TrEMBL record:
Domain of life: Bacteria
Keyword Transmembrane helix found: yes
Chain intervals with Basic residues compositional bias: 216-227
Protein's UniProt keywords contain Metal-binding: no
Region (Disordered): 207-227
Transmembrane segments: 6-27, 39-62, 68-87, 116-137, 149-168
Record organism: Eisenbergiella tayi
Name assigned to this protein: ABC transporter permease
Keywords: Membrane, Transmembrane, Transmembrane helix
Length: 227
């Protein structure tokens, strides 16, 4: 499996995941809710990484049986959610999902049986149906077109991920009352205001677990986030 196709899969997974989660939220709420993972573009990197992981780790299960593929997808999806939740909490001091109110929630609400079931369905459909279609399509794209497009989009997404990281970090500091320092902070304060960030990341909340922020700062962040 060519690295170029893996990168293309990551990019496509970002977009498909954004569309899927946006539709899911629309069906639940009846309105558009931003499900981006980055500040620019229709990308949700969790699904990009998820598509790559499923391709690398679950493809062999498709040759065994559908139940094996479903269970493998559910377990991998649950572990992946736990890992992403831990990474976000340790990196930003925030969380974007928390399932402790559900029955059969695990690891402090980082995943749940309900969403592992959804991951099982998603992985089964992806590996069993979408994967062969996508890679057949990737194979038809001329290398002279594929290589520069994938390279350009990958570089843009790397920049987008970095910018999202610093924008969320600066947003978090503003909510804690930390004044900016330097040109980058001034630019972030101007371009990525609290109002804009709330629209971009409506589900993001300050983490209540661990030592990512002091008690007083957590209270301030929850209050200003509306939590």
């Amino acid at each position: 499996m060519a690295m170029l196709d893996i990168l293309l899969l990551f990019l496509v997974g970002n977009v498909l995941g954004f569309v899927l989660e946006t539709l899911y939220c629309y069906l639940l709420t009846g309105k558009y809710v931003s499900r981006r993972g980055v500040v620019y573009g229709p990308f949700n990197q969790i699904y990009g990484f998820g598509a790559v992981l499923m391709t690398l780790l679950l493809k062999s299960l498709a040759e065994k049986s559908l139940p094996a593929l479903f269970i493998g997808s559910a377990v991998l999806g649950g572990i992946f959610e736990i890992g992403c939740s831990l990474f976000q909490e340790k990196t930003y001091g925030t969380v974007s999902w928390e399932y402790s109110g559900q029955r059969f929630a695990f690891f402090g609400g980082r995943t749940s049986l309900k969403f592992m079931f959804f991951w099982g369905i998603l992985g089964t459909v992806y590996i069993g149906v979408l994967h062969p279609i996508l890679f057949a399509f990737f194979g038809r794209i001329p290398l002279s077109v594929k290589a520069p497009v994938v390279l350009a989009l990958t570089l843009f997404l790397i920049y987008d991920l970095w910018l999202s990281y610093v924008a969320v970090g600066r947003w978090r500091k503003r909510l804690c009352g930390t004044p900016g320092s330097g040109r980058l902070d001034a630019w972030l304060d101007e371009k990525f205001t609290d109002e804009r960030m709330k629209k971009l990341y409506p589900a993001m909340r300050a983490a209540d677990r661990g030592n990512s922020a002091s008690g007083s700062r957590k209270k301030t962040m929850r209050k200003m986030w509306g939590g």
